[in-house]
Design a protein that fits this description.
Strand content: under 5%
Structural class: mainly alpha
Helix content: over 70%
Number of helices: 16
Distance between the termini: 20 Å
Shape: globular
Largest sheet: none
Length: 441
Amino acid sequence: MKITYKEIWKISLPIIAGLIAQNVMIVIDTAFLGRVGEVGLGAGAIGGLFYLAVVMLGIGFGTGAQIMMGRRNGEKNFHQIGFIMDHSFYFLFFLALLLFILMLLLSPLFLQYTVSSNAIYEASSQFMKYRMWGIFFAFVNVAFTSFYIGITKTRVLTISTTLLSLVNIILDYCLIFGHWGFPEMGVGGAALASTIAEASASIFFIFYTYNFIDIKKYNLFGFLKYNKVMLKSILNISAPVMAQYFISFSAWFSFFMMIEHMGQHALAISNIARSVYILLMIPIWGLSSATNTLVSNLIGAGRSYKVIPLIKKVIVISLLCTFVVILLMLAFIRPLLSVYTKDTLLITDTIPALYVIAVALILFSVSMIIFNGVSGSGNTKSSFRIEVVTILAYLLSTFIFSRILHSKVQMVWCAEWVYMIVMGTLSVIYLKTKDWKSTII
């Protein structure tokens, strides 16, 4: 496998395009809910992050499976990839069932004790009532996404996420506001639209894989007998990533809960800022995912000496992309925010938070690539330890800014700087001081 800029971009671009399509959905959700009001924006943020924190357990498992499939792909041991997929489906189904039951029973109680505003609590509960059903389809999509990134055939992800986004946008319009004969459901409509959109992506993945992928080559859908050794091997890689992703998004949920205690206006600002932040992160996320699988493929092919040069090249691309998106954001900052709300005060008060986010993106474009180099090596226990230390620093700084110093919203967002600096520093130390090249998975 070549590690030229062209090859890196060839693998990354379809992932980025897919993420653009998927995150347009988040932007549209937030824009529609902005028309509902500040309570709708707040409930969308709280409910959405709560759901994401739970779903991250499945995505973490999928990342571990992706690393293993990438290693087998590099070794040209293609038949083992199907075996990994089978066990991914087994585990993810039972995990989805367990998490669904827990959300059904515990989410109302959890939200009641963590949300201070009764209006936001009621709207968040309504959101979760419909959103929790999406976990089954989300985990099917996780398995397929891991497979396609693992074998570096990423173009299909653009199609799947474009479909998901289009379905979601249309149903948002219908279900939030009650257009075209549909019921007017408000926040609940946004959640139901997202769930149906995830189901449509699952159907597409199954159809595409059966019709356009060499099933025999990868030994797909054999659904061979459960093998404890295989599942244990995947979990050895996945479990730290699952924990890492869960605490990472739980920390972001905690961040928003601290913001929520600052008032509905502060929460509305942060939800808009979050939507813009996620949108601008897309190139970095795509390049990070490509770094993960390319590192795994290189080690599997016995070319671990090319990992560091690969990471450096990806960082160059990442920084260039980040500077472009930041310049575009700064040039069109008010028109961008007017997509979310017509409230001029809300727009004015959100702008300082976006300036803070611009600096965070530059730090993120370096730190996230290096961090994915660590996890791509297969030593996910080390990446988990890095994440734990980083999260502790992040939450501590958020608490100091919001609850002790009583800072303005934009200053609380400076906790993102702390997160990126600590993560990047620890990842560099790991790659320079640890023997990661011989990690066996």
